[in-house]
Amino acid sequence: MTNQNQIILRLILSAIIGGLIGLEREANNRPAGLRTHILVTVGSTLIMLVSIDGFYDVTTGLYLGDPARLASQVISGIGFLGAGTILRTGSHIKGLTTAASLWVCAGIGLAIGNGYYLGGLVTTGIVLITLVSLRSFEKKVLKTNYRTLEITANNRPGIIGDIGILLGIYNISIKDIFLMDSDDTIITAFIQIKLPSNININEFIQDIHKIDGIFQIGFAEEQFDSVI
């Protein structure tokens, strides 16, 4: 049986850990923030504690069931909560990192509830480094290799295909596309692309303006308006 001091310590520690991870998500205005991560971590810890002590028979000193069965349901069950944080707008998907952080928090909660402090604390450190430090690193790396092309055009059939064909002619790699409809007639496309080193930007801009229906092209902070 787990003593009362250990129960209190594990629940409080899991709340602190969940709060640290949730605070980072909250600061970045993500769907699941401080409270959600705390609840997931503490709930997982409690379930693990129940798994450890709930099947213990004090009279015989034996476990009457399988303690792992209750705790194992946390991993599959947390998937439903994580799915609620994933949002899809057009071709753009957001919330995968938050869903993953909830899943990891559930795992950390189970580890702390089982008294596996080293694994839980080290995992927490890795998660925080990944969410905080690697975010800046990722942006710096992507900034040197990718740029976002913003195109406003008529919402006509085939215009995205025409743009894609031109990008292919210039050997421009497409990393991501996000489409936003201003209304039924206007569409704005945000295309994250990797430019080849030998590209002639001015020539590329002139050719993309030749595509029927394009009003404006934004490339980083530069704006190239079509003359219509």
Automatic annotation (TrEMBL):
Its localization reads: Cell membrane
Gene3D superfamilies found in the cross-reference section: 3.30.70.260
Q: Which InterPro entries match?
A: ACT-like_dom_sf, MgtC/SapB/SrpB/YhiD_fam, MgtC_SapB_SrpB_YhiD_N
Q: What does the UniProt keyword field contain?
A: Cell membrane, Membrane, Transmembrane, Transmembrane helix
Does the record's keyword annotation contain Cell membrane? yes
Q: Pfam families per the record?
A: MgtC
Q: Which GO terms describe its cellular component?
A: plasma membrane
Signal peptide location: none
Transmembrane ranges?
6-24, 36-56, 68-87, 118-137
Q: What is this protein called?
A: Putative Mg2+ transporter-C (MgtC) family protein
Residue ranges annotated for the MgtC/SapB/SrpB/YhiD N-terminal domain, each copy included: 11-139
Report the source organism: Sporanaerobacter acetigenes DSM 13106
The family annotation for this protein states: Belongs to the MgtC/SapB family.
- Please give, as recorded in its UniProt entry, the membrane topology of this protein: Multi-pass membrane protein
